[in-house]
């Protein structure tokens, strides 16, 4: 009867000597007016050089864990929600910032959560997520082209709703420490639209 073989850890790509051992690290998010939100994420650390990295096999679970923090954000949007919305329409960060009347680096900061949109801007972004025609009107007023506008309109299902189903979240709890995620009930919050998986869209940074 063959012996069971032990699972081998991948080799570190940095030093090429150590092996990558699974670990957990905590990432802390700071939405304004809400207690800090801690998320336990999967990672790996080299046994030789100590470098930490995320393995490809861990990415999907980490996305789920980050998405699960939505329930602690109150009315704030996740950076990933803003990023997915912008990319869905093929907009650059600079173009999106101009459409919503903000400084040129505003969307860069919103997406990385270095800062958060104010209440009125958050409401405007939410409205544009739900009603694409509003986004088009704002873009036209700003003299900005929405690169994927016609492409999205050719897909009735995609055109009828935003790539992100933004719903009001429950009231946040105090200093949340998120471990293994509970089922996400925020609709299609962070899923990439099927249209983007089927056809290559223009690269947008």
Description:
By secondary structure, the chain is an alpha+beta fold. The chain has helices at residues 59-67, 79-88, 93-99, 106-112, 119-130, 132-142, 149-153, 156-160, 194-198, and strands at 20-29, 37-46, 52-53, 177-178. Among the domains are: 20-72, no CATH class; 79-165, 434 Repressor (Amino-terminal Domain) (Orthogonal Bundle). It contains nine helices and four strands; from the N terminus they run βββααααααααβα. It is elongated, with a radius of gyration of 20 Å.
Low-confidence stretches: 157-162, 165-202
- Share of residues in helices: 25-40%
Structural class: alpha+beta
Mean of all residue-level pLDDT scores: 81
Which properties best describe this structure?
205 residues; alpha+beta; 434 Repressor (Amino-terminal Domain); four-stranded mixed beta sheet; 9 helices; 4 strands; 35% helix
């Amino acid at each position: 009867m063959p012996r069971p073989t032990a699972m081998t850890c991948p080799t570190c790509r940095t030093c090429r000597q150590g092996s990558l051992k699974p670990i957990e690290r905590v990432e802390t998010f700071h939405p304004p007016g809400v207690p800090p939100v801690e998320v336990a994420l999967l990672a790996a650390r080299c046994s030789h050089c100590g470098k930490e990295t995320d393995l490809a096999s861990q990415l999907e679970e980490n996305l789920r864990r980050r998405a699960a923090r939505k329930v602690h954000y109150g009315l704030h949007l996740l950076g990933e929600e803003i990023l997915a919305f912008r990319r869905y329409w093929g907009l650059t960060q600079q173009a999106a910032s101009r459409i919503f009347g903000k400084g040129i680096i505003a969307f860069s900061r919103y997406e990385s959560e270095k800062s958060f949109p104010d209440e009125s801007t958050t409401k405007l972004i939410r409205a544009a997520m739900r009603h694409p025609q509003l986004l088009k009107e704002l873009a036209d007023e700003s003299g900005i082209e929405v690169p994927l506008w016609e492409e999205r309109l050719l897909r009735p299902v995609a055109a009828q709703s935003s790539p992100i189903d933004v719903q009001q979240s429950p009231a946040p709890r105090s200093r949340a420490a998120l471990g293994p995620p509970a089922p996400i009930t925020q609709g299609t919050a962070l899923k990439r639209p099927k249209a983007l998986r089927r056809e290559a869209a223009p690269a947008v940074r």
